């Protein structure tokens, strides 16, 4: 290796002493400088040495390769397999199968649960071309909903991971396996199934393809559902929910309404026993439902509720100290600032408070609110939660459209449910407070385990609450809500037919018809709010589209069906034990239920 | 050629008979016959030829294994790659043997001329070339896409050997600088294509030759340091290099489909392999017939063939070095060293890539991988190596 390190000799200049080339003397003009034989041999020796050194390095490198070969092929194939599977493992680790807790109704019936399935995906880089063609021909035959064009694009995309179809049944998985096409692979997945179906589509909500909650309770409790082992117990009663869904569906269909909503609330706890919004959707359906179907009218939609709001207005007037026997002039339309408030089928005379409720007088209600004043009105509505977003365990919560600025005219129109847009759930919980003894309890979709522990805020006195029960009963006995009466359940309520807002004005022939009811009015247990969006006059309504002809009778049918399930015993006795005689006299209630069976 | 023969009798001084001419025919292939072919017959290293031919045969067997599945994947005739590779191999054998006929002087001359020609063609590639997979490296000649840069590698090795040797021979001739300049020109052209792998290997071979030519150790270290810095810069600045290296350092971070399948192939192969035609993973490896043919060898023929192939490459390098012992011609040493480095580096990078020893780098396995340009260029390099390893009287040095 001596030559290896030998330095290249310095170039010598021609003419220096002793510098003679073997060929003989070189003339000074010769520009070629040839090294002597020793000089020539030196680089050659270095070259040889270094070439041998290079061979040594190459031999070492080839030895490394050989050792690697022996290592992965003979000695430790498992480690090599481990390296090979690292990528797959990473993918699995990144997307663990996410287990979700069940959602059950108040009686433990399953409303949402996980089902283990497999997803079909393709590693398109691995599929030979003819096999791709075979897959494009065969897969749509197995899954008719597959779009062949999209499938072709996907399979030729050269991507490592393309979903073909989610949630295969074991039978479908076998059919795909039988095709024997390489590159078609399965990943384990969880499919959320909803035994409750359409009836609960807005309440329970939906999950996306990754099994994350995308709407409804699934979204609101997503974290809880993915971390808890316990099922989520709802306040919903599946039986009541189904009946409510059916009755509302029939009603919407019969009155050719655009949609509707129905709520059943437990007045003592705020528990939502049933909540339906139509149109609805099939939660397990592939593809996303239309916005219209996804929209929860009961909690997200805000509407001018119309005359049903008079329940709140009247309670406010009583609570402000206006005696029940007071009269308000409704002899002529009320004019204020260029606006005119008039009555539908007006009596054109001063009306008492029970009469204002019974005849649903706008003028009377407006005069009551006027006497109460804007400040008191706003405070009262705020205490009922009507000026803030509805409180419920859903991501779909509507925010009221509050008059701003709140002028005197607003005070007057809000009295009969115009100028303030709220969700049906707002109204239902407010009415619930009015008749439950005067305590506002925020609504909830979760089962209340300890009924005694429910806390609320008092909004009206117990006495005024009793008066309100009598007044609402009066509406059903003698007012616009007659068709809601159900023998034995002493239904009380209030109709409301609000002209729908269109742009800045109101539509002539399009209304929101609603009926809010409580039963039994002797000792209220449940509130029902039934809303129909734009019901049409049909045979039997004599050309009317007002709530008394559609929402009220539907509410009656609903109560007749759900009351027995809710454990409300029918009673055919006089209300005398619940209302004192003077109240019955003052309001003008009948003292006996009409003869007849328990159901209509 | 007659001119060549008469001026440089490759072997045998003094001449015993006038070997040329018709009267030499009866004495064909005797040591007395000094015709080019006869000389070649006696001076060529048949052991080296045999080793190279064995490699060619292995390549043929492996293209039979990997070709049909690759052809099916791109939807062409099943035997598409096999048929073409057979033609390439035949042409390669002719080219290899033809090249091995060259004497040192003619090797140098043809090498220099060929290099200038390839340089010219390379300059035309951006104009005439067709873009495949994002790089413009190919010039289509009918159904055959020629990749001139493949041929530039061995020719550049010859030119560099000449320049370095001349730099030693003639003091006033700045051979090192000229070689460096040529490297700059060639490297620039390759980077523009872009073909970093080729640039890398050309630079490495240049570095080896510079080293063999007696570069002082100080500069050797500088060169190594510069090489490392260059590689690190490439890692920092060139996104796909960065991606490849990161993927190698942390296999779990990205999807390394080819490597994953390649490792599976070796593992499935075991000692004797699954048997010819029994490979399954080859149909999942997109580059089974080119960059990952070593994996196919592993799966179907097992450890034995893999070791044999690796051993053959090393044997060729050692044998060519052995044959050069006592050589006094610096050019021959440098050229042999460069060609050995070229072939060995390419083989090592290919094998180490498929074995996940280094980041994946698209590099063909000489004589084994499918590809016309690659096979012919390897034949050129091997032929040159054969020419260099022929026995020469020492007086033959130019």
From TrEMBL, chain A:
UniProt GO cellular component terms: plasma membrane
Signal peptide (residue range): none
Residues spanning the membrane: 51-70
Biased composition (Basic and acidic residues): 29-41
GO BP terms in the entry: cell wall organization
Domain Penicillin-binding protein dimerisation: 99-210
GO MF annotation terms: carboxypeptidase activity; penicillin binding
Record-annotated Penicillin-binding protein transpeptidase domain positions: 260-540
Keyword Membrane set for record: yes
One Pfam match: PBP_dimer
UniProt xrefs under InterPro entries: Beta-lactam/transpept, Beta-lactam/transpept-like, PBP_dimer, PBP_dimer_sf, PCN-bd_Tpept
Region annotated Disordered, chain positions: 13-41
Superkingdom to which the source organism belongs: Bacteria
Main location: membrane
Keywords: Carboxypeptidase, Hydrolase, Membrane, Protease, Transmembrane, Transmembrane helix
Record localization: Membrane
Descriptive protein name: Penicillin-binding protein 2
Species annotation: Phaeovibrio sulfidiphilus
């Amino acid at each position: 290796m001596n030559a290896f390190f030998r330095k290249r000799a310095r170039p010598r200049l021609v003419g220096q002493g002793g510098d003679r080339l073997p060929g003989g003397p070189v003339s000074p003009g010769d520009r070629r400088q040839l090294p002597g034989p020793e000089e020539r041999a030196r680089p050659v020796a270095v070259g040889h040495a270094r070439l041998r050194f290079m061979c040594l390095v190459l031999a070492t490198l080839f030895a490394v390769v050989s050792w690697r070969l022996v290592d992965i092929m003979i000695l430790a194939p498992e480690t090599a397999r481990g390296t090979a599977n690292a990528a797959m493992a990473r993918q699995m680790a990144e997307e663990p199968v996410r287990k979700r807790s069940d959602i059950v109704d108040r009686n433990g019936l399953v409303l949402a649960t996980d089902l283990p399935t497999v997803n079909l995906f393709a590693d398109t880089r691995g599929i030979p071309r003819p096999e791709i063609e075979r897959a494009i021909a065969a897969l749509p035959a197995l899954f008719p909903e597959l779009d062949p064009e999209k499938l072709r694009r996907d399979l030729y995309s050269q991507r490592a991971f393309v979903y073909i179809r989610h949630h295969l049944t074991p039978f479908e998985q076998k059919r795909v396996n039988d095709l024997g096409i390489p590159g078609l692979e399965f990943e384990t997945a969880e499919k959320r199934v909803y035994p409750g179906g359409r009836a609960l589509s807005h309440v329970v909500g939906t999950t996306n393809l990754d099994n994350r909650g995308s709407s409804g309770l699934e979204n609101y409790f997503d974290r809880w559902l993915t971390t808890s082992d316990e099922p989520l117990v709802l306040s919903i009663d599946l039986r009541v929910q189904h009946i409510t869904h059916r009755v509302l569906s029939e009603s919407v269909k019969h009155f050719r309404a655009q949609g509707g909503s129905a709520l059943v609330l437990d007045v003592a706890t705020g528990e939502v026993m049933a909540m339906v919004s139509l149109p609805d959707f099939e939660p397990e359906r592939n593809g996303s439902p239309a916005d219209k179907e996804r929209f929860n009218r009961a909690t997200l939609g805000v509407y001018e509720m119309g005359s049903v709001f008079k329940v709140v207005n009247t309670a406010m007037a009583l609570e402000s100290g206006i005696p029940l026997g007071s009269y308000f002039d409704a002899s002529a339309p009320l004019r204020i600032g260029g606006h005119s408030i008039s009555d539908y089928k007006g009596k054109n005379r001063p009306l008492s408070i029970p009469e204002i409720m019974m005849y649903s007088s706008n003028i009377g209600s407006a005069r009551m609110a006027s006497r109460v004043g804007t400040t008191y009105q706003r405070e009262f509505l705020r205490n009922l939660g009507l000026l803030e977003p509805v409180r419920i365990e859903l991501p779909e919560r509507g925010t009221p459209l509050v008059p701003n600025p709140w002028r005197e005219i607003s005070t007057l129109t809000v009295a009969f449910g115009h100028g303030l847009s709220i969700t049906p759930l707002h109204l239902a919980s407010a009415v619930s407070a009015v008749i439950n003894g005067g305590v506002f309890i925020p609504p909830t979709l979760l089962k209340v385990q300890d009924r005694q522990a429910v806390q609320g805020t008092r909004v009206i006195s117990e006495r005024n609450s009793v008066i309100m029960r009598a007044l609402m009963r009066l509406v059903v006995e003698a007012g616009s809500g007659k068709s809601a009466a159900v023998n034995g359940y002493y239904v009380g309520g209030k109709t409301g037919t609000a002209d729908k807002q269109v742009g800045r004005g109101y539509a002539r022939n399009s209304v929101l018809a609603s009926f809010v009811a409580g039963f039994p009015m002797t000792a209220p247990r449940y509130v029902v709010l039934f809303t129909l969006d734009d019901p049409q006059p049909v045979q039997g309504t004599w050309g009317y589209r007002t709530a008394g002809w559609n929402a009220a009778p539907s509410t009656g049918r609903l109560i007749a069906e759900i009351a027995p399930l809710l454990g409300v015993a029918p009673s055919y006795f006089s209300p005398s034990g619940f209302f004192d005689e003077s109240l019955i006299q003052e309001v003008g209630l009948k003292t006996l239920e009409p003869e007849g069976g328990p159901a209509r | 050629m007659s001119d060549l023969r008469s001026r440089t009798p490759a072997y045998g001084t003094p001449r015993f008979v006038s070997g040329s001419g018709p009267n030499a025919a009866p004495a064909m292939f005797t040591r007395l016959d000094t015709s080019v072919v006869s000389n070649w017959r006696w001076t060529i290293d048949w052991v080296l030829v045999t080793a190279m031919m064995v490699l060619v045969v292995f390549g043929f067997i492996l293209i039979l294994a990997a070709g049909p599945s690759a052809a099916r994947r791109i939807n062409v005739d099943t035997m598409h790659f096999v048929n073409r590779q057979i033609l390439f191999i035949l042409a390669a054998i002719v080219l290899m043997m033809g090249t091995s006929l060259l004497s040192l002087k003619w090797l140098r001359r043809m090498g220099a001329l060929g290099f200038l020609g390839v340089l010219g063609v390379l300059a035309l590639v951006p104009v005439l070339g067709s873009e495949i997979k994002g790089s413009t490296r190919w010039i289509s000649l009918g159904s055959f896409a020629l990749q001139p840069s493949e041929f530039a590698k061995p020719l550049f090795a010859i030119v560099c050997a000449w320049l370095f040797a001349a730099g030693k021979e003639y003091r006033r001739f700045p051979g090192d600088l000229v070689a460096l300049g040529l490297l700059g020109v060639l490297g620039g052209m390759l980077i523009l294509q872009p073909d970093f792998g080729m640039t890398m290997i050309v630079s490495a071979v240049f570095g080896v030759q510079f080293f063999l030519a007696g570069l002082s150790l100080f500069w050797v270290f500088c060169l190594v340091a510069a090489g490392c810095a260059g590689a690190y810069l490439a890692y920092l600045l060139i996104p796909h290099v960065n991606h490849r290296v990161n993927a190698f350092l942390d296999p779990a971070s990205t999807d390394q489909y080819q490597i994953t399948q390649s490792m599976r192939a070796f593992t499935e192969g075991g000692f004797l392999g699954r048997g010819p035609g029994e490979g399954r993973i080859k149909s999942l490896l997109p580059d089974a017939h080119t960059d990952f043919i070593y994996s196919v060898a592993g799966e179907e023929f097992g450890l034995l063939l893999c070791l044999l192939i690796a051993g053959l490459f090393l044997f060729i390098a050692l044998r060519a070095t052995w044959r050069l012992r006592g050589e006094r011609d610096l050019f021959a040493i440098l050229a042999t060293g460069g060609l050995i480095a070229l072939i060995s580096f390419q083989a090592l990078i290919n094998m180490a890539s498929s074995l996940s020893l280094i980041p994946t780098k698209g590099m063909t396995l000489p004589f084994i991988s499918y590809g016309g340009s690659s096979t012919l260029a390897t034949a050129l390099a091997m032929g040159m190596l054969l020419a260099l390893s022929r026995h020469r009287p020492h007086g033959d040095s130019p």
